[in-house]
Amino acid sequence: MWTCWRTRNGSTRIKLAISRSIPYFFEDLRGGFIHQISNLLRFTGIHANMKHLGMKLGIVKAPENTIPQISDKSPIQQLATLVSKPIIFASYCIDASFQGNLKFCGGTKELNLLVKLLRQKGYEAYMVTYDGSYEPWLLDSQPHLSIAEYREKLKSAQNVRCVTSLAGAKAFIQPCQQIYLWDMELAITEHQDFAALANLYQNKLQGVAAISRTIQAWHMAHFQRSCTLLPNLIDRAFWFPTPEQRQPRRVGYMVEGSHTEAYLKIIRETVQAKGLDLEFQQIQGIEAEVLAGMRSCEVFLSMNIGKDFLWGEGCPRTVIETLATGGIVIAFDIIGNRETIQDNFNSVLVPRYRPELMAEALVRLYSIPGELDRLRSNALALMQACHTFEARWSAIQEFLQL
């Protein structure tokens, strides 16, 4: 399987390179030919007449001020003005074995929040899983449809938006004519889904959004198409600070993989050697339990090292959720974290795989009077300005052409 997708990706990249070079080849050939003819005609005095004829025939480009003005709206947007509001479907369902209803998955939560926001704005919107079922772990799960119900709605709906976070979500993508991709994870897009993504760009992809600027730049560099920046969403109906519940010197963490126990041991021993007495609290469970745990901590250690050696993790939600509840984060420097955290402004970043530096940062936070309050104030201001539903609504409108 590993060799299969690597080989497929290699052939896809070769095809992309060839498809890009062919238009440039003919453009250069045509440009060179026209340039030579133009030089010859200048000596005859009929250059202006020939240029005018060339513009009429489309061989020579007309000056910009003579080009007819084209509507800024895409065909989808022009159609939308003639019909009712679009119905929006969101899913990452691949098939019966990967139904698009993963529990404790950041992508599940992001799409759920997108649907919630769209419904608040008056749009008919749904999550789609293979059989319509879902794990009840979120505080506010949105309406779900099965793939069969989704297909039926597509038959009668005139104006739809189908949003996915996986280019390989075959069961969801296959029935729709156009797809909107909100890419949250380069560890998947760059590897096993690359060929599927390239195919979507050629056939079905109407709009692209990225959860970070790194992912945004990756799409623009590979496919020469615009890509909307749409970072993590925070539901302020639930995720807000409750200072009375915050416990002094309590440090939260989650089990982020097999490395967690060893990393935590290093951190504990380092802070104890410095004479710092801290309580380390493991946070786990459904969203309500995680919310209560986050609110009780002053600091959170994000020991997420990511799914990919190069890209790390696309959108670690524990970081943004900690900041939204007024906690301070010490996190490894991976994609999503480095765009949410401004180091030593609203929290702290340390190099990946360096728990001893996490411990040093923890000691420093508790050694500087007022440092926790300063970082917390900046973090809450950033959450309000950049990650609330209202702050991100314009980006969603751009992405989905609403």
UniProtKB/TrEMBL annotation:
Q: Give the molecular function GO annotations.
A: glycosyltransferase activity
- Record's InterPro entries? Glyco_trans_1 (IPR001296)
Q: Which Pfam families match?
A: Glycos_transf_1
Where the record annotates domain Glycosyl transferase family, the positions are 273-379
Q: Give the superkingdom in one word.
A: Bacteria
Name of the protein in question = Glycosyltransferase
